[in-house]
Design brief:
Blueprint lengths: L5 H7 L5 E4 L2 E3 L9 H8 L7 H7 E3 L5 E3 L8 H11 L4 H5 L2 H7 L1 H7 L1 H16 L4 E4 L22 E5 L3 E12 L6 E4 L14 E6 L5 E6 L14 H4 L3 E12 L3 E4 L2 H9 L15 H26 L2 E2 L5 E2 L2 H26 L2 H4 L3 H5 L1 H10 L8 H15 L2 H12 L3 H12 L2 H11 L4 H7 L1
Parallel strand pairs: 1-10, 5-8
Antiparallel strand pairs: 1-2, 3-4, 6-7, 7-11, 8-9, 9-12, 10-11, 13-14
Helix pairs in contact: 7-8, 11-12, 12-17, 12-18, 16-17
Length: 454
């Protein structure tokens, strides 16, 4: 067992992994400018030379050797508290390596069904820990048409599946989306995205493979451009990390690396171990939850439309004869728009899912090698063109989650003086005296007493 240095970690990434970014295949990520910041972020988890950080980041394993604390199996409240402390001093690369805690937490249940799988989990856990490696939690399948089960899709590969079993292992095909730091780790730990049924045994699969395994390709996308000015971008300039669109193109997995291969009763247990529990293009047009969310968005849009319509129908006139929209109605509509805009964006993001941020770029789509994977795994159903789907996602991202979107999130609140200014204007314009008189009349107060009350 040996802790790696930052330099040794960087060298370990020169292993022939296949990775793309903006349409370019990058043969050595350690020398490419797009990976400069992400690698620097990951190197921080190997800063054992710093005595203060070493105390937080390491523990003594059962053999007395030091290991990264992300691999420490909690046995007490104190262990949990140290892990919480670690989370404040660890990169997302280290954080996703916690996938092994999920595996170890269900090892006993796995052993009841197949003791060999449980032994494989233990062996892989020790292999990654003892070699100070990092791993990604590889969970989310493309899913295609969400109204259909895995085996009912137009393309059977829209959920990762076993395509062949041999005496030596299994061969898997499919893709996983939104995989944080996939290009920066050593192991890809694949787990089911949900529970599977008896007619979906080939989709009930879990395993771990090296990032450089034959048939593995990663298409990257980041929320931040490389080499941002750290003064202007104090967070993004230091913390950017690519998300991976991970493809398994007939990847061979030896049996000793398999944690699940057809045992559907375990699929949901593995999915739940990580606490895992988009609209017409995704086949969700009949989903009740999605319909409720869409109804809320319709209500938001219609309330704004009706507010503007009322303001125009009940216009006001200046002494010179010029007309303008009703001032109170306009301020009420502006307030409603600003006060509820962020909630509307939240609902839209909830409908759309992670592809809002992790969708590969147009350059990757146009690249012949990566483009064929994108067109294959972003398919939902015959009536939906993949490029059209990507354009819709890009519009959602650009409007709500990127440069223009970030600007709009602030402007929605602050334009016109902010919410407080709208409240002040409504209080000034509203007929308070009339409202009071109506209330007193409803309470049965005679008009004379109503005047006295004012």
């Amino acid at each position: 067992m040996a802790l790696k240095t930052p330099a040794e970690y960087v060298e370990s990434l020169r292993d022939g992994r296949v990775t793309y970014w903006d349409g370019e295949r990058i043969d050595d990520i350690t020398t490419h400018p797009k990976f400069k910041t992400p690698i620097a972020v990951a190197c921080g988890d190997y800063d054992y030379a710093n005595p203060v950080r070493r105390e937080v980041m390491t523990y003594l394993a059962e053999d007395g050797e030091p290991a990264h604390r992300v691999f420490q199996i909690p046995r007490s409240e104190a262990d949990l508290n140290r892990r919480v402390e670690l989370m404040g001093d660890m990169s997302i690369v280290g954080g996703v390596t916690g996938v092994f805690m999920a595996l170890m937490s269900v090892k006993d249940a796995v052993a009841e069904v197949n003791p060999q799988y449980a032994a494989n989990i233990e062996r892989m856990y020790r292999h990654v820990r003892d070699n100070d490696l990092r791993a990604a939690e590889v969970i989310t399948d493309p899913k295609g048409d969400r109204s259909r089960r895995a085996h009912e899709q137009d393309d059977p590969d829209l959920y990762v599946r076993i395509v062949r079993r041999t005496d030596e292992g299994i061969v898997v095909r499919g893709a996983k989306l939104h995989i944080t730091a996939a290009s920066l780790v050593h192991e890809l730990v694949v787990m089911p995205t949900k529970g599977m049924r008896q007619d979906e045994t080939d989709y009930a699969v879990s395993f771990s493979v090296p990032v450089n395994a034959k048939g593995v390709s990663i298409i990257n996308r980041s929320f931040a451009a490389p080499e941002l000015n750290a003064f202007d971008y104090p967070a993004s300039g230091h913390h950017s990390m690519p998300e991976g669109f991970v493809v398994f193109d007939d990847v061979f997995v030896p049996w000793e690396r398999v944690f699940l291969a057809g045992e559907v009763q375990l699929a949901s247990r593995l999915a739940q171990a990580l606490g895992l529990w988009e609209t017409e293009m995704q086949g969700k047009e009949r989903d009740a939850i999605c319909q409720n969310t869409i109804a809320e968005l319709i209500c938001y849009a219609e309330m704004l439309r009706m507010g503007l319509d009322y303001a125009c129908r009940n216009y006001q006139t200046t002494p010179s004869g010029m007309i303008h929209p009703n001032a109170l109605a306009i301020n009420a509509a502006k307030y409603y728009y600003a006060a509820n805009y962020h909630d509307a964006v939240k609902r839209l993001h909830d409908l759309a899912g992670g592809l809002v941020l992790t969708l590969p770029s147009e350059a990757d789509l146009r690249n012949e090698a990566s483009g064929r994977y994108i067109r294959k795994y972003l398919h939902t159903k015959a009536s939906v063109d993949v490029e059209t789907r990507m354009r819709v996602y890009n519009l959602i991202r650009d409007l709500t989650a990127d440069a223009y979107g970030g600007w709009h999130l602030v402007v929605a609140l602050q334009a016109g003086g902010g919410l407080s200014a709208q409240r002040v204007m409504m209080n000034r314009i509203y007929d308070m005296a009339g409202a009071k008189a109506t209330a007193l009349a409803a309470a049965g107060v005679p008009p004379a007493q109503s005047l006295a009350a004012e």
